[in-house]
Design brief:
By secondary structure, this protein is mainly beta. It contains one helix and eleven strands, in the order H-E-E-E-E-E-E-E-E-E-E-E.
C-alpha cells in the first residue's frame, strides 16, 4: 500500500512539471543519431540502453542489464508507432513503441515486448516520463512490469538520457 502511494504521488508530481514527455524511449528514429540511457531499475540493478538510427525509419537498439541482454532493430512506421524485432538472451522478441502527443511539451509513450524462451512467454511493459534538464540531456523515470518463468515483477526505474 505504501509503495503504491509513493509511486502514485511521484507520477502526479512529475505530471505537474512543464516540458515533460511520458515515456522512456520514443517511437521516432533519428537518422545518424539516437539516444543513450543509463537507468537504475529497482532491484534489477543498472540498465544501459542505446539506440542509433541508420536511416530515418530503421534503427538499432542494444540494452544491457545484469539479468538480460536485448539486441534488436527498430522500424518506425510513423512518428507515433515503431516495431521492434530482435533477441533477448538468445530468445526472439517482438515489440512495439507507441507515442501519442498530448501538447507541445508532453506525450504518452508505451513499450511492449513479447519474448518466447524455453517455451515460456515473457512480457515486458514500460511506461515512464522524460524531463529535459539541459539541451540533449534529460531525467527519466517510470515503471517496468515484467512477467517470466520466475513470476511477475514491478519495478520503478530512474536515470539519465542523452540525445545525439
Amino acid at each position: 500500500m505504501g509503495k503504491s502511494l509513493i509511486v502514485g504521488c511521484l507520477v502526479i508530481s512529475l505530471l505537474l512539471v512543464p516540458q515533460a514527455a511520458l515515456a522512456l524511449t520514443t517511437a521516432d528514429v533519428r537518422v545518424n543519431g539516437g539516444e543513450t540511457t543509463l537507468m537504475f531499475v529497482g532491484d534489477r540493478g543498472l540498465q544501459l540502453e542505446t539506440e542509433y538510427g541508420i536511416t530515418s525509419e530503421v534503427g538499432l537498439s542494444v540494452a544491457i542489464r545484469e539479468d538480460w541482454t536485448r539486441i534488436g532493430a527498430k522500424y518506425e512506421i510513423d512518428s507515433s508507432l515503431a516495431l521492434l524485432l530482435g533477441a533477448v538472451n538468445n530468445a526472439p522478441f517482438l515489440g512495439a513503441n507507441i507515442s501519442m502527443p498530448l501538447d507541445d511539451y508532453m506525450e504518452v509513450v508505451g513499450d511492449l515486448s513479447l519474448s518466447l524462451a524455453s517455451n515460456r512467454l515473457t512480457v515486458l511493459f514500460e511506461l515512464g516520463m522524460v524531463f529535459d534538464l539541459i539541451n540533449n540531456v534529460d531525467l527519466r523515470g517510470g515503471l517496468l512490469a515484467e512477467t517470466d518463468q520466475n513470476g511477475k515483477n514491478f519495478s520503478f526505474q530512474i536515470g539519465l538520457g542523452v540525445n545525439y
